[in-house]
Amino acid sequence: MRQILRNCLQGKLLNRAEALNLVGAQGDERQALLATAAQLRDGYKGRIVTFSPKVFVPLTNLCRDFCGYCTFRKAPDEAGAKTLTLEEVLRVVRQGKLLGCTEVLFSLGDKPEAIYPEMKSFLNERGHQRTLDYLYEACRVVLEETGLLPHSNPGVMGQGDLQRLRDVNPSMGLMLESVSERLLLAAEDAVGEIVGTVQVVLNQPENQPHRGDIAKLLVHRRVRRQGLGAALIAAAERSALKAGKTLLVLDTVTGGDAERLYARQGWQRCGQIPNYALWPNGTPCATTIFFKFLHN
Ligand code: SF4
Predict the structure, then answer these.
(1) Which sign, positive or negative, has the C-alpha torsion 144, 148, 154, 156?
(2) Are residues 152 and 224 in the same domain?
(3) How far, in Å, is the centroid of ligand 1 from the Cα of 118?
(4) I need a surface site. Which of 4, 174, 182, 234 has the fewest CB within 10 A?
(5) Does this model's pTM top 0.85?
(6) Domain ranges, residue 246
(7) Across residues 238-267, what is the average pLDDT?
(8) Cα atoms found within 13 Å of the Cα of residue 88, Cβ hemisphere only
(9) Residue 72 beta carbon below 6 angstroms from any ligand 1 atom
(10) Are residues 242 and 276 in the same domain?
(11) pLDDT score recorded for residue 178
């Protein structure tokens, strides 16, 4: 352990085994570990810790997404579902100011108006189409009427909204769940076991940014012939469209069940390639290529 700590002080990066070794440090070794950590902190970061007291404003906890781990989101008919009016926002912020806060953390779900008519009406009654526009107004009002600095943390935003919100936000956060270029959609049964998956490959050559590939449609044997394959494909198409794709391509074993499924789902067959892939036993099999254009 001492040698590992000496290496750290000399700037050597830990490997996995060394890091795990440090986790188990006890007694004198733990004291040596803490002393080394303190020495590195003083050398690289210094001893000043800064923070800004923030008041938390959950502008709306409605959200179009359903992240499994999320404890924030609510559906409109759930207890605790709430979208704050501007008066309510100002009331919370003024209380925060009295307590010494200097920033306002706006937290909110991702584009709830996309799936909830209740949110659409709330926005329309206030002259807005989108939650991001309402957020802009809330930030502006807070800035003008209280002087506290807004920090917004909405869902995914495009360049235009990021740029616009800069007018009324000295800093912002973005909810980035993944940077993978491959979307994985999974279907669960009633007890939460995964019974089907499909993937959408978004990363394509530079001259085909509008295209995506469907890959690995898998449906568990015990739930086949119940429409799950069709539901997964439809979900994959929606996700691809949402990601800006207008053309999807896939290949599947010629003569297999999936071939009939894709044809029923409106995919167009464009040809067959003999000996394209291998069966698990190593013998070659033919593949049929399908494509589908996506529209809103
Ligand atoms: S996008 Fe954010 S608010 Fe919405 S469900 Fe996911 S974590 Fe929750």
Answers:
(1) positive
(2) no
(3) 18
(4) 174
(5) no
(6) 182-293
(7) 93
(8) 10
(9) yes
(10) yes
(11) 67
